[in-house]
Amino acid sequence: MIAKLSVFTLVVAILLAIAPVSARADVAAGKHTAETVCQTCHGMDGIATSPVAANLSGQQEMYLKIQLEHYRSGVRQDAQMSIIAQMLSDEDIANVSAYYSSIKITVEMPE
């Protein structure tokens, strides 16, 4: 019985670890963070308002999360993003990554 419970616990832990980040993130809270912190450069729709800022809509959630974590830790550096990322908690990063990745985009190939 204990062995079955241990295997079950291990399986649940693995499933939680590989679950999409957005399953644990709050998109509405991420929208609020985007409104208060991100929209000036990245826009609410994730389309950059500045030629030196990245478009965020349609990006993979995990990619956005990792990049924000890298800016915050100093692994990746940018004069503005390094400062802004310092202000974000793990929860803020997860939420805003979920928000921008939830924006759907379409692609048109050139002829």
Proportion of beta-strand residues: under 5%
Mean pLDDT rating: 88
Which structural class is indicated by helix and strand composition?
mainly alpha
Main pleated-sheet profile: none
Number of helices: 5
- Low-pLDDT runs: none
CATH superfamily of the domain at 27-102: Cytochrome c-like domain
What does the model show?
60% of the residues lie in helices and 0% in strands. With 111 residues, the protein is an all-alpha fold. It has a domain at 27-102: Orthogonal Bundle (Cytochrome Bc1 Complex, Chain D, domain 2), CATH 1.10.760. Helix 2 (27-42) crosses helix 5 (90-102), helix 3 crosses helix 4 (79-86) and helix 3 packs antiparallel against helix 5. The protein starts with a helix and ends in a 9-residue tail after the last helix. The model has no long low-confidence stretch (mean pLDDT 88).
Task: Provide the descriptors you would attach to this structure in a database record.
111 residues, 5 helices, Cytochrome Bc1 Complex, Chain D, domain 2, mainly alpha
Question: What is the strand and helix layout of this fold?
Answer:
Layout (H helix, E strand, L loop, with lengths): L1 H17 L8 H16 L18 H13 L5 H8 L3 H13 L9
Helix pairs in contact: 2-5, 3-4, 3-5
Summarize the structure.
By secondary structure, the protein is an all-alpha fold.
